[in-house]
Amino acid sequence: MADAARARVLAQTANVFTPRDESPEEFPPGAGREETFYTCTACHNFKLVAQQGMNRRQWDESLTWMTQKHTMPPLEGNDRKIVLDYLEATFPPRTAPGGRGSPNPFLKQ
Ligand code: HEC
User: Fold this and answer.
1) Ligand 1 in contact with 49 (CB < 6 A)?
2) Full-prediction pTM beyond 0.85?
3) Which tens digit of pLDDT belongs to each residue from 44-69?
4) Which of 26, 27, 77, 81 has its Cβ near the most Cβ atoms within 10 Å?
5) Residue among 15, 37, 62, 66 to mutate when testing ligand 1 (max atoms within 8 A of CB)
6) What separation in angstroms does the CA of 107 have from each of 80, 98, 103?
7) Third-level CATH fold of 12-90
């Protein structure tokens, strides 16, 4: 009982960005999901990430930006690859209908 009270106090005082109410399972499955989730949720919730849609280069720039502006520990080598693979495959750019990203009718899908 004391534990429950303590947990409530901790929950209330937690930084709003601290994702106490999220788990990796809420996001689309894929290789690297857990690694990516825990890397990013050290600072903010994963919804902030999941609501973006970017290509690999833009995700890569976001990681650099997190490191330079927000003091994220640099993600390098295979760790960076794992995270980028997941982000690119799971949250690609959303293309507006009829926008520049619309399918090329001359290319067979
Ligand atoms: C060391 C802390 C830290 C880590 C780790 C971190 N971020 Fe962030 N991130 C921030 C802060 C601070 C913001 C700004 C929050 C805001 O805009 O309110 C942010 C914002 C963002 C945004 C929103 C940018 C926008 O235009 O609104 C994206 C996307 C993002 N982070 C991606 C990531 C990804 C992907 C990871 C994991 C690979 C990650 N972050 C890990 C600190 C971090």
Assistant:
1) yes
2) no
3) 999 999 999 999 999 999 999 999 99
4) 27
5) 66
6) 32, 16, 8
7) Cytochrome Bc1 Complex; Chain D, domain 2 (1.10.760)
